[in-house]
Amino acid sequence: MRLQDMPRAWARRCLGIARFCRTTLDVDLTGITLVLAYSTGLDSTALLYLAHALAPHLNLTLIPAHLHHGLRPESDHEAEHAVRICASLELPCICTRSHVPALAKARGLGLEETSRAERYAFLERVRQEHGADWIMTAHHGDDLLEDILLRLVRGTGWPGLGGMVGVDHERRILRPLLDWDKKDVQAFALDCGLSWCEDASNASLAYTRNRIRTQLVPLLRAENPSIGTAMRQLWLQARTDEDYWRQFPAPVHTTQQGLMLPAHELHSTHSAQRLRWYKEVLDGMGQGQALFVQLMALDTAWDNQTLGRCFQFPGDKAATVTAQGIVFQHWVR
Q: Which domains does the chain have, with CATH numbers?
């Protein structure tokens, strides 16, 4: 598929991806190498063809990558489909298999969590092996809406409540379709005659995200048909807020006990800044998302100088209030 062969409206939307990345995500796509997360589903298929159409105009090098999770009987067919579609576009397809059920059992984690971790680990390996600049995923505006609602349900604080980031510099992840609605992605795929695979698990109400998508989102759209636009505005506000506070990094230093935010810094700083420091330090310690109520409890203990009080956070992390400051460390179960 060439850009000039697309219907004019879709060609403009395709070119808009580069503009969105440049102006909103502050990433110039020109001349770079991208690993494309390609599951063979509707969204990643649309992204594959959009990126392929953009490639000659931006001098892009594309590396589609498909992970066989070993979860469903149709996974074999999807892997074959991925290789076939990429070959038709004269693109390499990096495809490998992971045994998620066995890994989930060994790690004591759920299938969904293990599958997600394996997918991103695989994509990062491909990125490093090929010297790629970014991993590009097909998350769109409806995914953003669902993510914000999930975070609201879980008790996520601000600005994390604004949803997934469009560009993750640390993990080298780029999400260029966040200003597209699902209906736009589907219309593009249908108008251009694309072929994709349907994942039956997306309809299962066993997963919280699917229940939000099929039950909660329709109710919200009935109240506000423009709820997707409203959530993207919230997302942009959160990103703007993050950009501002990033200029005041946590004054953390390493001690024998662990990572410390010193008392003199904490005493002279507003709680709004302290809460951001706590989250910055905890996020830097690895996986596991701290909830706002946990961060607030830690800050209250600091305010009241409840010395010796220890708080546990997801990801086997802990924070202890001391006279010298707050000490962050990993703890053993």
A: 3-229 (3.40.50.620), 253-330 (no CATH)
